[in-house]
């Protein structure tokens, strides 16, 4: 020991202390058992395979609040999902982007609604075309129309009526003017459609040409519906899609967590922020 201390140029007592130093004590609390949490996570993603750890955490939080249990920490959910290979693959593609500086979301319900459409392909070659309406505050999918033919101006007018009735009941005019934000599709820009919108108290607003981000909330809903519902559901024919559409919309409104809503579903957000009793689609 003396020779070693002399060779490295340090005092022998110091070298002895280094050699006999006890192993460092673990700081903090020991990690909680993961078996129950893993089981809960697996049960959720078995039905919702496109949900990442933040939405899984939102659903776990909802379950814990309903049963009076402790809410798991979001970092723990991420760690457990990573450890067990349950995280989604990170998307690394860089798609084409168009700049949009405007703000689509609003702070008060029933001040701006947005609408858009999408196409769902079936295994037998049939196509189902859907047009929908969202509230730009609470993100609720208030109404939709679906057809195997193209969405017409008459379909859009029916959508307007159904949306107004969903929020206000059977009235001829909304209590206050509401913006109706859409793209420049012919079914939205038709003269009769725009006139009808103004007659019932809606203010037609269209986005700039070739700027889908200007109706980004509706575009995001299309992506969500295709990713979390259409892609993981059987679509043998159009009739199967028609049967599932109300189930998808109801799940989206009642269950699907939104980052912009504090990872609450639209109807959770409505209930918590306004204490209203939202009607169903």
UniProtKB/TrEMBL annotation:
<dbReference type="InterPro" id="IPR048020">
    <property type="entry name" value="Transpos_IS3"/>
</dbReference>
<dbReference type="Pfam" id="PF00665">
    <property type="entry name" value="rve"/>
</dbReference>
<dbReference type="InterPro" id="IPR001584">
    <property type="entry name" value="Integrase_cat-core"/>
</dbReference>
<protein>
    <recommendedName>
        <fullName>Integrase catalytic domain-containing protein</fullName>
    </recommendedName>
</protein>
<dbReference type="InterPro" id="IPR036397">
    <property type="entry name" value="RNaseH_sf"/>
</dbReference>
<dbReference type="GO" id="GO:0003676">
    <property type="term" value="F:nucleic acid binding"/>
</dbReference>
<dbReference type="InterPro" id="IPR025948">
    <property type="entry name" value="HTH-like_dom"/>
</dbReference>
<dbReference type="Pfam" id="PF13276">
    <property type="entry name" value="HTH_21"/>
</dbReference>
<dbReference type="GO" id="GO:0015074">
    <property type="term" value="P:DNA integration"/>
</dbReference>
<feature type="domain" description="Integrase catalytic">
    <location>
        <begin position="103"/>
        <end position="274"/>
    </location>
</feature>
<dbReference type="InterPro" id="IPR012337">
    <property type="entry name" value="RNaseH-like_sf"/>
</dbReference>
